[in-house]
Amino acid sequence: MINVAVIGAIKQGKSTLINTILDYKINNKTGKYPEVAAIVKESGSTTQTPAPYSNPLLEGIVVWDMPGIDGFCHKMDEYLDKFEINSDKFDFFVVVISGEITTDAGHLIRELYKREMPFYLVRTHVDETIRKGQRLRKEERDVFNGVRDELHQQLHLLGQSFEPINGSVNIKYELYLVDGLERDRYDMKKLLEDIKNDLP
To answer: What is the pTM of this model?
Structure first.
């Protein structure tokens, strides 16, 4: 059994991403997800405790919606300890952002690095960023690559403030740019394939 922890601030698209990973779709008639799917709220998450989700058709994977990291900042170690986010309980970690790497997200990445816990960094809402770029007459591919390059640069600059482990700073991550609702656009397909490859 693979346990995946999905971590991030509120209103980053975590629940929508979880439903897409588990292949839960919005019903065209009701406009809602199935009752067993992760709860998506326009006002942001109110999750107070880790919530596990699974799909009987996708054996071997449980995706956990973790409480928001908002406000923990320099106390991110307390957040990870409080919710038992560690390599003994979870097989891998998905850090969700919807724009640039915020202060809270930066402290989360720092703490994952210190604990030598590799993670997937998923940048949601890239479709909205592309639409904004197109209104400025930018090409979709240029906007997409620009977002990717900027995040790699932010992680590089962030890593310069980290203490070396075994003589070097090596942030172990994979970066994906996605539209949370679409399984076949941008990097979502690769994200799903990589998760599938991690299944037992």
So the answer is: 0.91
